[in-house]
Specification:
Length: about 140
């Protein structure tokens, strides 16, 4: 049976992950969401959200965690995963693949050898640069 130390550790993990969502998951070109914005978007009280961020004695329900995950567009498993970065990257990839243009490029790239894939990557990098977009994050790319 889990003790108070396990509960405190779990609440601290939730607090750290929630704080990270506030800091990192917001629309491009603006700062982090406020507690009031998340409260309005989720229907969760400001008080509960603040308590969760502090890691206090608040014990959120699964429904609360699911609502917050949906608001920040991360999978609900984000809260309990051993690798939350992988959970978020997987969701972001899924969202990108839902874009018909991205999906078309991915499907057309299937079967290309390493040289062909490198050419596609370089072409995309040039297109991004020509539109004033920042370079793609190379740390997300698989190594051959």
């Amino acid at each position: 049976m889990p003790g108070q130390a396990d509960k405190d550790k779990g609440l601290a993990q939730i607090a750290a992950r929630l704080d990270r969502l506030f800091e990192e998951r917001h629309p491009e070109g603006r700062g982090p969401y406020t507690v009031a914005e998340v409260s309005t978007g989720t229907g969760i009280s400001d008080t509960l959200l603040r308590g969760m961020r502090k890691g206090g004695k608040t014990n959120p329900t699964i429904d609360t965690l699911v609502k917050i995950a949906a608001f920040f567009d991360v999978p609900p498993t984000y809260w309990v995963s051993d690798d939350p970065d992988k959970e978020v990257a997987g969701r972001d990839l899924q969202r990108a693949m839902e874009d018909a243009g991205v999906q078309s490029i991915a499907l057309r790239s299937k079967g290309l050898d390493a040289k062909g894939l490198r050419f596609v990557k370089e072409s995309i990098d040039m297109a991004r640069s020509s539109q004033g977009l920042p370079p793609a994050d190379a740390s997300d790319e698989p190594t051959p």
